[in-house]
Amino acid sequence: MRETIRVRVFSSFFTMLVLSLFTQSSQAVPSFARRYQQSCTTCHTVFPALNEYGRLFLAKGYRLPGAAGTIVGEEPIGLGTEVKSPGAKRPLEIPFVDIPATSVASFQVTSDYVNRPDDAVTDEFTGISSVGLIFGGAMGTRFSFFGNIAIIEDGAFEGIDRLFFQYNRDLAFNVRVGQFEPRAIPFSNHRRLIRITPYLNGVFPIVPAHNFFGFSPNQKGIEAFGRIPGPGSLGEFEYAAGLVNGEPGGAFEALEGTGGMVGELVENLEEAYEDSGGENDFNNSKDFYGRLNYNLWLRGAFSVGSFYYKGKSGFLADTADPDSFVKNGNNFNRWGVDLRWDQDRGYVTLLSSVQFFNDSLDRATFNDLSARVTTGEIHLHVRPWLVPAFRYERVDLYDFPSTFSNSFDRYSVDVLTQLAPNIMIMAGTTRSSNSAPELPLFDSFSRVAVHFAF
After folding, report:
1. Alpha-carbon distances of 321 from 73, 183, 270, 272, 315, rounded to whole Å
2. Which of 72, 88, 159, 194 is the one with CA 20 to 30 A from 201?
3. Gap between the Cα atoms of 351 and 376, Å rounded
4. Going from the N-terminus, what domains does the chain have, and what CATH number goes with each?
Protein backbone atom coordinates (compact mmCIF):
# COMPACT_ATOMS: atom_id res chain seq x y z
CA MET A 1 0.00 0.00 0.00
CA ARG A 2 1.19 3.47 -0.76
CA GLU A 3 1.86 6.05 1.89
CA THR A 4 -0.04 9.31 1.78
CA ILE A 5 2.34 11.87 0.39
CA ARG A 6 3.95 13.85 3.18
CA VAL A 7 3.92 17.63 3.44
CA ARG A 8 7.37 18.98 4.23
CA VAL A 9 8.67 22.39 5.12
CA PHE A 10 12.16 22.98 3.74
CA SER A 11 14.23 25.37 5.81
CA SER A 12 16.53 25.97 2.84
CA PHE A 13 13.72 26.64 0.37
CA PHE A 14 15.38 29.62 -1.31
CA THR A 15 18.66 27.75 -1.72
CA MET A 16 16.81 24.80 -3.23
CA LEU A 17 15.18 27.08 -5.80
CA VAL A 18 18.46 28.66 -6.80
CA LEU A 19 20.15 25.28 -7.22
CA SER A 20 17.26 23.77 -9.19
CA LEU A 21 17.62 24.37 -12.92
CA PHE A 22 14.93 22.73 -14.98
CA THR A 23 13.87 22.65 -18.63
CA GLN A 24 11.95 20.10 -20.67
CA SER A 25 12.30 18.98 -24.26
CA SER A 26 9.11 20.72 -25.24
CA GLN A 27 9.72 24.20 -23.87
CA ALA A 28 9.60 27.41 -25.87
CA VAL A 29 12.28 27.86 -28.50
CA PRO A 30 13.87 31.31 -27.94
CA SER A 31 15.36 31.17 -31.45
CA PHE A 32 11.82 31.87 -32.73
CA ALA A 33 11.70 35.04 -30.59
CA ARG A 34 15.10 36.08 -31.96
CA ARG A 35 14.06 35.31 -35.55
CA TYR A 36 10.88 37.42 -35.46
CA GLN A 37 11.96 39.85 -32.70
CA GLN A 38 8.84 39.04 -30.70
CA SER A 39 8.27 38.25 -27.03
CA CYS A 40 7.67 34.64 -25.97
CA THR A 41 4.19 35.74 -24.86
CA THR A 42 3.24 36.37 -28.50
CA CYS A 43 2.68 32.61 -28.88
CA HIS A 44 2.58 31.32 -25.27
CA THR A 45 0.26 31.92 -22.36
CA VAL A 46 2.86 30.43 -20.02
CA PHE A 47 5.44 28.35 -21.85
CA PRO A 48 5.25 25.69 -23.07
CA ALA A 49 1.45 26.09 -23.38
CA LEU A 50 0.41 27.78 -26.63
CA ASN A 51 -2.29 30.41 -27.10
CA GLU A 52 -4.42 30.44 -30.27
CA TYR A 53 -1.87 32.62 -32.09
CA GLY A 54 0.85 30.13 -31.15
CA ARG A 55 -1.21 27.21 -32.44
CA LEU A 56 -1.60 29.02 -35.79
CA PHE A 57 2.16 29.71 -35.79
CA LEU A 58 2.74 25.96 -35.34
CA ALA A 59 0.21 25.07 -38.06
CA LYS A 60 1.90 27.44 -40.54
CA GLY A 61 5.29 25.76 -40.11
CA TYR A 62 6.74 28.28 -37.61
CA ARG A 63 5.62 31.39 -39.52
CA LEU A 64 3.74 34.29 -37.95
CA PRO A 65 0.08 34.15 -39.06
CA GLY A 66 -1.22 37.26 -40.80
CA ALA A 67 2.08 39.08 -40.37
CA ALA A 68 3.10 39.63 -44.00
CA GLY A 69 4.34 43.18 -44.40
CA THR A 70 3.75 44.06 -40.73
CA ILE A 71 6.36 42.02 -38.84
CA VAL A 72 9.64 41.50 -40.60
CA GLY A 73 12.10 40.44 -37.91
CA GLU A 74 15.54 39.49 -39.10
CA GLU A 75 16.21 39.25 -42.81
CA PRO A 76 16.82 35.62 -43.89
CA ILE A 77 19.82 34.55 -45.94
CA GLY A 78 19.07 33.66 -49.56
CA LEU A 79 20.37 30.34 -50.81
CA GLY A 80 20.18 31.14 -54.51
CA THR A 81 19.65 33.85 -57.09
CA GLU A 82 16.80 34.46 -59.45
CA VAL A 83 17.50 33.13 -62.94
CA LYS A 84 15.65 33.36 -66.24
CA SER A 85 15.17 30.53 -68.66
CA PRO A 86 15.13 31.25 -72.42
CA GLY A 87 11.85 32.90 -73.34
CA ALA A 88 10.69 33.27 -69.73
CA LYS A 89 8.78 36.48 -68.95
CA ARG A 90 9.77 36.50 -65.28
CA PRO A 91 12.37 34.85 -63.02
CA LEU A 92 11.88 31.22 -62.13
CA GLU A 93 10.18 30.75 -58.76
CA ILE A 94 12.22 28.52 -56.47
CA PRO A 95 10.35 27.81 -53.20
CA PHE A 96 13.47 26.85 -51.20
CA VAL A 97 15.29 30.23 -51.25
CA ASP A 98 16.36 31.22 -47.73
CA ILE A 99 17.26 30.12 -44.20
CA PRO A 100 17.17 32.01 -40.85
CA ALA A 101 20.12 34.39 -40.49
CA THR A 102 20.86 33.68 -36.82
CA SER A 103 21.04 30.50 -34.78
CA VAL A 104 17.98 28.24 -34.94
CA ALA A 105 18.98 26.45 -31.71
CA SER A 106 18.32 26.83 -27.99
CA PHE A 107 19.85 24.85 -25.14
CA GLN A 108 18.14 23.09 -22.26
CA VAL A 109 19.56 21.88 -18.96
CA THR A 110 17.70 19.77 -16.39
CA SER A 111 18.15 19.61 -12.64
CA ASP A 112 15.52 19.57 -9.92
CA TYR A 113 14.78 18.68 -6.31
CA VAL A 114 12.48 15.68 -5.80
CA ASN A 115 10.73 14.19 -2.78
CA ARG A 116 9.65 10.54 -3.24
CA PRO A 117 8.13 9.30 0.03
CA ASP A 118 8.08 5.63 -1.03
CA ASP A 119 11.77 5.41 -2.00
CA ALA A 120 14.71 4.49 0.22
CA VAL A 121 16.17 7.97 -0.45
CA THR A 122 13.19 10.25 -0.09
CA ASP A 123 14.78 13.65 -0.81
CA GLU A 124 17.26 14.22 -3.61
CA PHE A 125 18.93 16.89 -5.74
CA THR A 126 19.30 15.39 -9.21
CA GLY A 127 22.28 17.52 -10.24
CA ILE A 128 22.63 18.30 -13.95
CA SER A 129 20.89 15.18 -15.18
CA SER A 130 20.26 16.23 -18.77
CA VAL A 131 21.46 18.65 -21.41
CA GLY A 132 19.49 19.06 -24.60
CA LEU A 133 19.28 21.06 -27.80
CA ILE A 134 16.02 22.25 -29.36
CA PHE A 135 15.86 23.94 -32.75
CA GLY A 136 13.46 24.80 -35.53
CA GLY A 137 12.66 27.25 -38.25
CA ALA A 138 11.13 28.03 -41.63
CA MET A 139 12.98 27.69 -44.93
CA GLY A 140 11.48 29.80 -47.68
CA THR A 141 7.71 29.75 -48.07
CA ARG A 142 7.13 26.01 -48.25
CA PHE A 143 9.48 24.14 -45.91
CA SER A 144 10.24 24.04 -42.19
CA PHE A 145 11.87 21.81 -39.60
CA PHE A 146 11.92 21.10 -35.88
CA GLY A 147 14.10 18.94 -33.66
CA ASN A 148 15.02 18.11 -30.10
CA ILE A 149 18.26 16.27 -29.32
CA ALA A 150 18.83 14.91 -25.81
CA ILE A 151 22.62 15.36 -25.65
CA ILE A 152 22.88 13.95 -22.12
CA GLU A 153 20.13 12.05 -20.26
CA ASP A 154 20.86 10.50 -16.84
CA GLY A 155 24.58 10.92 -17.44
CA ALA A 156 24.67 9.23 -20.88
CA PHE A 157 24.04 10.23 -24.48
CA GLU A 158 20.34 9.73 -25.20
CA GLY A 159 19.79 10.66 -28.83
CA ILE A 160 16.95 12.05 -30.91
CA ASP A 161 13.65 12.85 -29.23
CA ARG A 162 11.91 14.59 -32.13
CA LEU A 163 13.22 15.54 -35.55
CA PHE A 164 11.02 16.14 -38.57
CA PHE A 165 10.91 17.95 -41.89
CA GLN A 166 7.70 19.66 -42.96
CA TYR A 167 6.14 20.78 -46.25
CA ASN A 168 3.72 23.67 -45.76
CA ARG A 169 1.45 24.45 -48.68
CA ASP A 170 -1.08 26.48 -46.69
CA LEU A 171 -3.24 26.07 -43.60
CA ALA A 172 -5.40 23.54 -45.47
CA PHE A 173 -2.67 21.02 -46.26
CA ASN A 174 0.70 20.26 -44.66
CA VAL A 175 2.88 17.14 -44.44
CA ARG A 176 5.58 16.21 -41.95
CA VAL A 177 8.05 13.32 -42.18
CA GLY A 178 10.39 12.03 -39.50
CA GLN A 179 10.06 11.47 -35.76
CA PHE A 180 7.19 13.32 -34.05
CA GLU A 181 4.34 13.13 -31.57
CA PRO A 182 1.19 12.04 -33.51
CA ARG A 183 -1.68 14.51 -33.53
CA ALA A 184 -3.96 11.64 -32.57
CA ILE A 185 -3.03 12.23 -28.90
CA PRO A 186 -5.73 14.20 -27.01
CA PHE A 187 -3.26 16.69 -25.50
CA SER A 188 0.42 17.06 -26.30
CA ASN A 189 2.82 15.76 -23.65
CA HIS A 190 5.47 18.06 -25.11
CA ARG A 191 3.40 21.22 -24.55
CA ARG A 192 1.64 20.36 -21.31
CA LEU A 193 1.51 23.02 -18.61
CA ILE A 194 1.62 20.56 -15.69
CA ARG A 195 5.20 19.37 -16.07
CA ILE A 196 5.43 16.99 -13.12
CA THR A 197 3.85 14.01 -14.93
CA PRO A 198 2.98 13.08 -18.53
CA TYR A 199 -0.64 12.56 -19.53
CA LEU A 200 -1.61 8.95 -18.84
CA ASN A 201 -3.71 8.88 -22.01
CA GLY A 202 -0.46 9.23 -23.96
CA VAL A 203 1.70 6.65 -22.18
CA PHE A 204 -0.53 4.16 -20.32
CA PRO A 205 0.57 0.53 -21.04
CA ILE A 206 -1.67 -2.54 -21.29
CA VAL A 207 0.77 -4.73 -19.34
CA PRO A 208 -1.07 -8.14 -19.52
CA ALA A 209 -1.15 -7.77 -23.33
CA HIS A 210 2.58 -6.88 -23.31
CA ASN A 211 1.61 -3.71 -25.18
CA PHE A 212 3.67 -0.66 -24.21
CA PHE A 213 2.64 1.44 -27.21
CA GLY A 214 2.38 5.16 -26.48
CA PHE A 215 1.71 8.34 -28.44
CA SER A 216 4.55 9.94 -26.51
CA PRO A 217 7.34 10.73 -26.61
CA ASN A 218 7.29 10.14 -30.37
CA GLN A 219 6.60 7.91 -33.34
CA LYS A 220 8.36 7.60 -36.70
CA GLY A 221 6.43 8.01 -39.94
CA ILE A 222 4.49 10.51 -42.04
CA GLU A 223 1.54 12.75 -41.14
CA ALA A 224 -0.75 15.06 -43.14
CA PHE A 225 -2.74 17.77 -41.38
CA GLY A 226 -4.55 21.05 -41.95
CA ARG A 227 -7.42 23.43 -41.22
CA ILE A 228 -10.44 24.23 -43.42
CA PRO A 229 -13.38 26.66 -42.83
CA GLY A 230 -16.55 25.33 -41.24
CA PRO A 231 -20.05 25.57 -42.77
CA GLY A 232 -20.99 29.16 -43.49
CA SER A 233 -17.48 30.16 -42.37
CA LEU A 234 -18.60 29.42 -38.81
CA GLY A 235 -15.58 27.99 -37.05
CA GLU A 236 -13.17 25.60 -38.73
CA PHE A 237 -12.36 21.91 -39.03
CA GLU A 238 -8.92 20.67 -38.12
CA TYR A 239 -7.81 17.24 -39.39
CA ALA A 240 -4.81 14.94 -39.23
CA ALA A 241 -3.99 11.50 -40.64
CA GLY A 242 -0.81 9.51 -40.24
CA LEU A 243 1.07 6.28 -40.90
CA VAL A 244 3.73 5.31 -38.31
CA ASN A 245 5.78 2.38 -37.05
CA GLY A 246 3.87 2.13 -33.76
CA GLU A 247 6.86 1.50 -31.50
CA PRO A 248 6.79 1.35 -27.66
CA GLY A 249 6.36 4.67 -25.88
CA GLY A 250 7.24 6.46 -22.67
CA ALA A 251 5.98 3.72 -20.35
CA PHE A 252 8.43 1.22 -21.84
CA GLU A 253 11.32 3.62 -21.21
CA ALA A 254 10.13 4.41 -17.67
CA LEU A 255 9.93 0.71 -16.71
CA GLU A 256 13.28 -0.44 -18.11
CA GLY A 257 15.58 -1.69 -15.37
CA THR A 258 12.95 -1.46 -12.63
CA GLY A 259 13.18 -5.13 -11.59
CA GLY A 260 10.29 -7.34 -10.56
CA MET A 261 7.93 -9.18 -12.92
CA VAL A 262 7.16 -6.11 -15.05
CA GLY A 263 10.84 -5.11 -15.28
CA GLU A 264 11.73 -8.66 -16.36
CA LEU A 265 8.92 -8.59 -18.94
CA VAL A 266 10.25 -5.32 -20.38
CA GLU A 267 13.78 -6.74 -20.63
CA ASN A 268 12.56 -9.88 -22.42
CA LEU A 269 10.39 -7.83 -24.77
CA GLU A 270 13.33 -5.58 -25.60
CA GLU A 271 15.43 -8.64 -26.50
CA ALA A 272 12.55 -10.01 -28.58
CA TYR A 273 12.21 -6.67 -30.41
CA GLU A 274 15.91 -6.68 -31.28
CA ASP A 275 15.76 -10.28 -32.52
CA SER A 276 12.71 -9.43 -34.64
CA GLY A 277 14.10 -6.41 -36.45
CA GLY A 278 14.60 -3.75 -33.80
CA GLU A 279 12.55 -1.63 -31.42
CA ASN A 280 11.78 0.91 -34.18
CA ASP A 281 9.67 -1.67 -36.01
CA PHE A 282 9.51 -5.38 -35.22
CA ASN A 283 6.84 -6.30 -37.79
CA ASN A 284 5.82 -5.29 -41.30
CA SER A 285 2.48 -3.87 -40.18
CA LYS A 286 2.22 -0.08 -39.98
CA ASP A 287 -0.14 1.72 -37.63
CA PHE A 288 -2.52 4.39 -38.91
CA TYR A 289 -4.65 7.07 -37.28
CA GLY A 290 -6.97 9.96 -37.95
CA ARG A 291 -8.19 13.00 -36.02
CA LEU A 292 -10.97 15.54 -36.61
CA ASN A 293 -11.54 18.68 -34.52
CA TYR A 294 -14.15 21.42 -34.78
CA ASN A 295 -12.92 24.81 -33.55
CA LEU A 296 -15.07 27.87 -32.94
CA TRP A 297 -15.30 30.95 -30.77
CA LEU A 298 -17.53 30.30 -27.73
CA ARG A 299 -16.74 33.11 -25.30
CA GLY A 300 -13.23 31.97 -25.94
CA ALA A 301 -11.40 29.51 -28.18
CA PHE A 302 -13.32 26.23 -28.01
CA SER A 303 -12.38 22.94 -29.65
CA VAL A 304 -14.03 19.52 -29.58
CA GLY A 305 -12.26 16.61 -31.23
CA SER A 306 -12.20 12.87 -31.81
CA PHE A 307 -9.55 10.43 -32.96
CA TYR A 308 -9.00 6.79 -33.87
CA TYR A 309 -5.72 4.84 -33.87
CA LYS A 310 -5.31 1.28 -35.19
CA GLY A 311 -2.19 -0.86 -34.85
CA LYS A 312 -0.59 -4.25 -34.40
CA SER A 313 1.77 -5.24 -31.63
CA GLY A 314 3.38 -8.43 -30.35
CA PHE A 315 3.41 -10.48 -27.15
CA LEU A 316 5.46 -13.22 -25.53
CA ALA A 317 3.67 -16.58 -25.48
CA ASP A 318 6.09 -17.40 -22.62
CA THR A 319 6.88 -14.23 -20.66
CA ALA A 320 10.33 -15.56 -19.73
CA ASP A 321 11.33 -16.61 -23.27
CA PRO A 322 12.10 -13.90 -25.90
CA ASP A 323 12.07 -16.62 -28.60
CA SER A 324 8.32 -17.10 -28.00
CA PHE A 325 7.57 -13.62 -29.37
CA VAL A 326 4.50 -13.41 -31.65
CA LYS A 327 5.12 -10.38 -33.88
CA ASN A 328 1.55 -9.62 -35.00
CA GLY A 329 -0.37 -11.28 -32.21
CA ASN A 330 -2.09 -8.18 -30.81
CA ASN A 331 -4.61 -6.17 -32.82
CA PHE A 332 -5.26 -3.02 -30.81
CA ASN A 333 -6.95 0.33 -31.15
CA ARG A 334 -7.12 3.60 -29.24
CA TRP A 335 -9.96 6.07 -29.69
CA GLY A 336 -11.63 8.86 -27.82
CA VAL A 337 -13.07 12.36 -27.61
CA ASP A 338 -11.62 15.52 -26.10
CA LEU A 339 -12.33 19.20 -25.66
CA ARG A 340 -10.43 22.37 -24.85
CA TRP A 341 -11.69 25.84 -23.88
CA ASP A 342 -9.56 28.96 -23.42
CA GLN A 343 -11.70 31.67 -21.81
CA ASP A 344 -11.78 34.88 -23.87
CA ARG A 345 -10.13 37.02 -21.17
CA GLY A 346 -7.47 34.42 -20.59
CA TYR A 347 -8.31 33.66 -16.95
CA VAL A 348 -9.27 29.99 -17.32
CA THR A 349 -8.27 27.06 -19.53
CA LEU A 350 -10.20 23.77 -19.36
CA LEU A 351 -9.10 20.42 -20.85
CA SER A 352 -11.04 17.17 -20.78
CA SER A 353 -10.85 13.82 -22.57
CA VAL A 354 -12.10 10.24 -22.46
CA GLN A 355 -9.90 7.65 -24.17
CA PHE A 356 -10.59 3.95 -24.74
CA PHE A 357 -7.96 1.20 -25.06
CA ASN A 358 -8.81 -2.14 -26.71
CA ASP A 359 -6.36 -5.04 -27.19
CA SER A 360 -7.29 -8.35 -28.86
CA LEU A 361 -4.71 -11.15 -28.59
CA ASP A 362 -4.41 -14.33 -30.63
CA ARG A 363 -4.31 -16.67 -27.64
CA ALA A 364 -6.72 -18.31 -25.20
CA THR A 365 -5.72 -16.42 -22.03
CA PHE A 366 -6.61 -12.74 -21.77
CA ASN A 367 -7.93 -12.58 -25.34
CA ASP A 368 -9.58 -9.19 -25.03
CA LEU A 369 -8.44 -6.47 -22.66
CA SER A 370 -9.77 -2.95 -22.47
CA ALA A 371 -9.29 0.19 -20.40
CA ARG A 372 -10.56 3.75 -20.18
CA VAL A 373 -8.60 6.84 -19.14
CA THR A 374 -10.60 9.94 -18.16
CA THR A 375 -8.75 13.24 -17.86
CA GLY A 376 -9.76 16.67 -16.56
CA GLU A 377 -7.48 19.69 -16.19
CA ILE A 378 -7.85 23.37 -15.27
CA HIS A 379 -5.39 26.27 -15.50
CA LEU A 380 -6.15 29.42 -13.49
CA HIS A 381 -4.29 32.51 -14.71
CA VAL A 382 -4.54 34.35 -11.39
CA ARG A 383 -1.96 36.84 -12.62
CA PRO A 384 0.02 36.86 -15.87
CA TRP A 385 2.96 35.65 -13.80
CA LEU A 386 1.09 33.22 -11.48
CA VAL A 387 -0.70 30.12 -12.84
CA PRO A 388 -1.82 27.26 -10.59
CA ALA A 389 -3.02 24.16 -12.46
CA PHE A 390 -4.76 20.95 -11.39
CA ARG A 391 -5.20 17.64 -13.23
CA TYR A 392 -7.37 14.64 -12.38
CA GLU A 393 -6.97 11.28 -14.13
CA ARG A 394 -8.95 8.07 -13.62
CA VAL A 395 -8.06 4.69 -15.08
CA ASP A 396 -10.70 1.94 -15.33
CA LEU A 397 -9.61 -1.58 -16.35
CA TYR A 398 -11.83 -4.29 -17.85
CA ASP A 399 -11.17 -8.04 -18.21
CA PHE A 400 -7.73 -7.71 -16.62
CA PRO A 401 -6.32 -10.53 -14.43
CA SER A 402 -7.49 -10.45 -10.80
CA THR A 403 -4.03 -9.30 -9.68
CA PHE A 404 -4.83 -5.86 -11.17
CA SER A 405 -7.10 -3.37 -9.44
CA ASN A 406 -10.27 -2.44 -11.33
CA SER A 407 -9.56 1.29 -11.16
CA PHE A 408 -7.35 3.96 -9.67
CA ASP A 409 -6.99 7.74 -9.62
CA ARG A 410 -4.12 10.19 -9.98
CA TYR A 411 -4.06 13.86 -8.91
CA SER A 412 -1.41 16.34 -10.05
CA VAL A 413 -0.88 19.99 -9.11
CA ASP A 414 1.65 22.50 -10.43
CA VAL A 415 2.05 26.17 -9.49
CA LEU A 416 4.00 28.21 -12.04
CA THR A 417 5.48 31.60 -11.19
CA GLN A 418 7.13 33.64 -13.92
CA LEU A 419 10.04 35.84 -12.90
CA ALA A 420 10.42 36.81 -16.58
CA PRO A 421 9.00 35.43 -19.83
CA ASN A 422 11.87 32.92 -20.02
CA ILE A 423 12.46 32.29 -16.29
CA MET A 424 9.89 30.32 -14.30
CA ILE A 425 9.65 28.65 -10.90
CA MET A 426 7.62 25.43 -10.82
CA ALA A 427 6.43 23.62 -7.70
CA GLY A 428 4.30 20.51 -8.07
CA THR A 429 3.10 17.28 -6.53
CA THR A 430 1.37 14.17 -7.84
CA ARG A 431 -0.45 11.48 -5.87
CA SER A 432 -1.85 8.15 -7.04
CA SER A 433 -4.54 6.32 -5.09
CA ASN A 434 -3.59 3.23 -3.07
CA SER A 435 -5.03 0.93 -5.74
CA ALA A 436 -2.57 2.14 -8.41
CA PRO A 437 -0.02 -0.41 -9.66
CA GLU A 438 3.29 -0.41 -7.77
CA LEU A 439 5.23 0.89 -10.75
CA PRO A 440 7.44 3.99 -11.19
CA LEU A 441 4.99 5.42 -13.72
CA PHE A 442 2.42 5.89 -10.92
CA ASP A 443 4.71 6.98 -8.05
CA SER A 444 3.63 9.76 -5.70
CA PHE A 445 6.24 12.50 -5.42
CA SER A 446 6.84 16.26 -5.20
CA ARG A 447 9.24 18.52 -7.07
CA VAL A 448 10.45 22.11 -7.06
CA ALA A 449 12.37 23.55 -10.02
CA VAL A 450 13.44 26.67 -11.88
CA HIS A 451 13.20 26.85 -15.66
CA PHE A 452 15.51 28.93 -17.87
CA ALA A 453 15.11 29.15 -21.64
CA PHE A 454 17.96 30.71 -23.61
Report:
1. 59, 35, 11, 9, 11
2. 159
3. 6
4. 13-79+92-452 (2.40.160.10)
